[in-house]
Specification:
single chain; 413 residues; 22% strand
Length: 413
């Protein structure tokens, strides 16, 4: 690590108090710098805390090749960061805070008490004990003409001269928790290369459900099913039918290809397998059995266990001719196309795609056109599914940017 005079260390500033920003602050403090963190919200880590309300999924235990593949077209860039701080390193780091972790049946990793708050409290104590100063209700407004940071706070505005700056401002989802994407305009003024922010891990809308389906089944979960996009292997899980379309964990897993299909073609398609454990020929045989005076609804229920929202959606998305043919209906049950026309608004999404492009950053995540300014976390141009992948990359990028910022500052003499 760099060596700085402890009597008068240079000031390193971090903008953003989420996992990436706090991780950068820790790395900078470990390098011997004076560190101040500025966050616009009344407290830091607000999105991190809310993400942990249902159980703090911190990372995932799957083998590294599968893990890094989750970052799709950015797996090269994120893989470099994970090479320094992967899922195992993150777990060890959490253990160093005095909090044990465990691997759930799905392979996801959680703190032993499933909560985010104890982890954050322990981390903030360690940061403050190391000298990190955290300012809340302090919003970054960009730079003045002399290059000082403009910071708005309840009493007015102050100027801060930083020896090095790490920006960790989040994406564009959950604006009420601080990730509002307002930094885009400030960096665009400096000609930073930014990919537009888009919803990721999000729900989607259809052109319109029938009144019957919407009134009776909006909010109903579809369980023990599988979803895919054309040309891909299906994934099992569950999702929720909404008044506008579909949402839920299995939909989020396919959000990137569906969103890109909508951007490209004006629509995207999810293929729903209502009976993922039963082959199509067995379904056709069951449907072909005589049903006598029973209705088709009762036939579907008695032969295949399809009823409720599953039966309603099957009826919604097929025509009478398909229902009249056991073979055609069996095919529909195994690959029922749900046509989606738009993503739900960015502010509703769990995360966002887009951000500062890696092509405009050097290997240390420093902006090529702005020496001494580094970027980390979700404001970078990458995306990943839920399951701990988002958090792991945020932690890894924060540590990488913090260490690189300290090394760069030392190289300046």
């Amino acid at each position: 690590m760099p060596d700085f005079n402890p009597a008068s260390p240079p000031l390193a500033v971090v903008i953003g108090g989420g996992p990436a920003g706090l991780m950068a602050a820790e790395a900078l403090a470990q390098a011997g710098l004076a560190v101040e963190v500025f966050d616009a919200m009344p407290s830091v880590g607000r999105k991190f805390l809310l993400a942990g309300v249902g159980g703090m999924n911190i990372t995932h235990s799957e083998p590294y090749p599968a893990f890094v593949a989750r970052y799709a077209e950015r797996q090269g860039e994120i893989g470099t960061l994970l090479g320094e701080f992967d899922a195992d390193a993150l777990r060890q780091w959490i253990h160093g805070l005095g909090i044990e972790t465990f691997v759930g049946t799905s392979g996801r990793v959680f703190p032993i008490d499933m909560k985010a708050a104890p982890l954050l409290r322990a981390w903030l104590k360690r940061l403050r004990d190391s000298g990190v100063v955290i300012h809340t209700r302090h919003r970054w407004l960009g730079w003045n003409a002399e290059g000082a940071l403009r910071i708005a706070y309840p009493q007015g505005e102050r100027l801060v001269n930083a020896a090095v700056l790490v920006l960790a401002l989040g994406g564009g989802s959950w604006a009420r928790l601080g990730s509002d994407g307002s930094w885009q305009a400030l960096l665009a003024e400096r000609a930073v290369d930014i990919s537009p922010l888009q919803p990721s891990n999000c729900g989607f809308e259809v052109a319109g459900w029938s009144a019957l389906l919407k009134d009776k089944f909006a909010g109903a979960p579809l369980k023990n099913i599988a979803l895919s996009v054309p040309g891909s292997a299906p994934r099992k899980g569950e999702f929720i039918l909404t008044a506008q379309g579909v949402e839920g964990s299995l939909v989020y897993a396919w959000s990137a290809p569906v969103r890109e299909a909508i951007n490209r073609d004006g629509r995207g398609v999810l293929l729903l397998d209502l009976l993922p454990d039963k082959p199509v020929d067995k379904i056709a045989q069951a449907l072909a059995r005589p049903r006598g005076s029973r209705s088709m609804a009762k036939h579907l229920h008695s032969q295949l266990g399809i009823d409720g929202v599953k039966a309603a959606l099957l009826r919604e998305l097929t025509d009478p001719a398909t229902f009249a043919s056991p073979e055609a209906l069996a095919q529909a049950i195994k690959a029922l196309p749900i046509t989606l026309v738009r993503a739900r608004p960015l502010d509703e999404a769990i995360s966002s795609a887009g951000g500062v492009r890696f092509e405009g950053l050097d290997a240390g995540l420093m902006l090529k056109g702005m020496p001494g300014v580094f970027c980390a976390g979700e404001m970078l141009d990458w995306e990943a599914p839920t399951g701990g992948y988002l958090l792991t990359a945020c932690f890894a990028s924060g540590q990488h940017a913090g260490r690189a910022a300290a090394q760069w500052l030392k190289s300046q003499g």
